[in-house]
Amino acid sequence: xRIGLNLxxxxxxxxxxxxxxxxxxxxxGEQDSNNKYIAYVTNVSSCLVPKNANFEQVLVNINxxxxxxxxxxxxxxxxxxxxxxRLDLMHWFAATRAIFSxxxxxxxFYDLMVFQNPEAFPKIKRxxxxxxxxxxxxRASLLxxxxxxxxxxxxxxxxxxxxxxxxxPPVISQTFQxxxxxxxxxxRAKHGLSHDFWLYVAHFYPHKNHQRxxxxxxxxxxxxxxxxxxxxxxxxxxxxxxxxxxxLQLKLEDDVICLPRxxxxxxxxxxxxxxxxxxxxxxxxxxxxILEAMACGCPIIASRIPMLEEFETDCLCLFDPVEVTSxxxxxxxxxxxxxxxxxxxxxxxxxxVEYRPGHVASILMDAYAHAQMQxx
Length: 376
Known about the structure:
Layout: E1 2-6, H1 16-31, E2 36-41, E3 55-59, H2 67-74, H3 77-84, E4 89-92, E5 105-109, H4 113-116, H5 123-139, E6 142-145, H6 148-157, H7 181-191, E7 198-201, H8 210-222, E8 230-233, H9 240-249, E9 256-259, H10 267-273, E10 276-279, H11 288-295, E11 300-303, H12 306-309, H13 312-315, E12 316-319, H14 324-336, H15 338-351, H16 357-373
Parallel strand pairs: 1-2, 1-4, 2-3, 4-5, 5-6, 7-8, 7-10, 8-9, 10-11, 11-12
């Protein structure tokens, strides 16, 4: 097949979405030498495309920050290019597709936050996304939610039939695995980290719930508990000033370490070094840091929300993310329960096998073939 990959919207600033796309496209490059891929890219997203012989780039001169420019291109010039390149299928990665499509289409859906938490979006963006996501859910040949939770939300909110969806989970590469003590000691020394520390990897969005985490940490200290230092790694997406002020107001400057942006190659060392990942997010579609931590043998406590309940039984313990006391109690129990941490570590390492490149690529290539066959 000749498969188009629409990467025009991709920017590093979209965080988890960028990582999801980067790893999935890289996975196709590693695992699939039969299909031909034509990737539509900007100067920013061109780095996502493998150098393989079966991958070709079409460089589009638009500003990927401008949704208006991109949507106009997708609904005009792109259709002509699809015909010229004789594509059998187009993969749309932004939860929307063009109004008119000249070949079968599959669409990746990350979450339905714009429907379930609409007040978090500016009005115009909210109306656009709600309209086009609903349209795309009706018209695409096949829908590719990134988790079972997202698929269930699509069934409930967008009334999508289960037979029209295939879950394509995040890819966790083999670089994410437990590292040896020598590498970990070097990483801790480089970043001034103690042997035991809590880790939270999340950009500073409102729904990532950093404020309650800090309040829980403060309450542990006030109660006489000695919590491990808390390491935060994320980029500012609107709430960093408030988080910084909370750290100062709660007098946690000596307890909270905010790491700068790391190279992806350093992330396995970060997860492997941590004694535990605490993840108090209020909403998740894919929760890639949870999977990365599992792959590196880092035990986890996290929010009791639908996405994370998928992992509860064998991989992590859950708390109520809106109750500061619940977060604090979970952290305290975790620090005191070494056998529980060992069980969670082993459960995570076993579970993450289904997110490795070979497994995900096989599911995705079958989905491509199924979508294309529907139009023969």
